[in-house]
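Proteins fold reproducibly. Next comes an illustrative record:
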Amino acid sequence: MKYIVIGDVHGCIDELKTLLAKQNFHCNSKGLIELNSSNQHKAIILLGDFVDKANEDKLKETIEFIHKNYHHLNQKQKHLYLILGNHEKMVYRHITKDPSLKITKKSIENKEKYYNTVELLEKDETLKKLFMELYHFCKPWFYYKYSSNFSVTLTHAPCPEKYLRKEDEESKGKMVKCISRSKNPEIALDDLIPYTHKEAKDNQHYHIFGHLSQSNIRQYKNKICIDTSAIYGGKLSCAIIKKDSLSFDSVPFENKQKSVHQNYNKLFNFSI
């Protein structure tokens, strides 16, 4: 199986469809991805954060598109996987009124600023049910092993290696979200999450993640970030895993909705 691993979508449904089409996943008139001889040996993996930040109509279309294609593509053999992102997790906590979620003035401000899917789901019960179902399909990690020399671990966020592919709650939390950049804007990203480069190795046991919006794909040794800021007007990117090789592809933001603004520093911003 060949895997198409797509970075943070954040409601960029037009770009998602364009990127899928580049990988020979075309939609029919009902919006269902058609399987044929050119793609039946491929699977799609969404690397988390398919919700939030986009316009409401695009968020709605994104949730509906992923939901119907999750069921459609996985009827006989699995062709669509979902990795849990911190935005799906936080939206779920809000709409289920998680008692551990403290409601403060700041949390309300953050919900309105960062998690606009919550308000959308609160006024659309049908869409809320679709999202809830998708949430339960999400997993915190995916592992691909081709040989003793080549493997790929997928998580939404970077995390120390000791947490990778573990099933305890602490490890699952670390794979979904790392320490907040927005709460630590004065700290260089490489200093905020030093394990990302300190644990990097010159081998082909890759760790691919998103979460950290960047202007382009960032790689240092076996650590790779593929969140290329689609909703910020950048690109939507994917990693393509085929046997024991990796390649990458991307499509630009199509300006079919308003992009949002964000200033964050660069990952792996040092001389090698």
About this structure: The chain has one domain: 2-252. Residues 68 and 185 are 39 Å apart (CA to CA). Residues 2-252 form a domain with the Purple Acid Phosphatase; chain A, domain 2 fold (CATH 3.60.21.10).
